[in-house]
Amino acid sequence: MNPSTTDCIRKEIHLRAPRTRVWKALSDATEFGTWFGMKLEGPFVPGQPVFGRITHKDYEHIHLEMRVERMEPESLFSYRWHPYPMDLKRDYTQEPMTLVEFHLEAVEDGTRLSVVESGFDQLPADRRDEAFRMNEGGWTGQMARIERYVAS
């Protein structure tokens, strides 16, 4: 898999879980929130927004919007969001959203899960680098979280 660029973060992990299990952990908003660390207010529906808040300690004040793009069972789940919306005084709704894509592939002894987040180059210059840096590290942590979640 190609390494990350300034516009795109790429991560990949081999999960020792069937693709059906990984798909449910991604596509069910309650399960997604459990391993990701957020509380979502509704189901994932393509073309629809879903709102929620982060549940990680020290980040509980962060509210977010995800706009589900595509849900291709056991293959692709994608959404758009405003990455790293930490400044409570800032209106992120006028900024472009990045695109997050989860790709699933059945492999021997489990599932290959790839995540690609793209669109950082279109973010306002004053926050582009920090949003990229924080999400680059964030996706490393989230891959470990889903690995533990689907193994339990």
TrEMBL record:
SUPFAM superfamilies: Bet v1-like. Residues 16-150 form the Activator of Hsp90 ATPase homologue 1/2-like C-terminal domain. It holds the Pfam family AHSA1. It comes from the Bacteria. Belongs to the AHA1 family. This is Activator of Hsp90 ATPase homologue 1/2-like C-terminal domain-containing protein. It comes from Geothrix limicola.
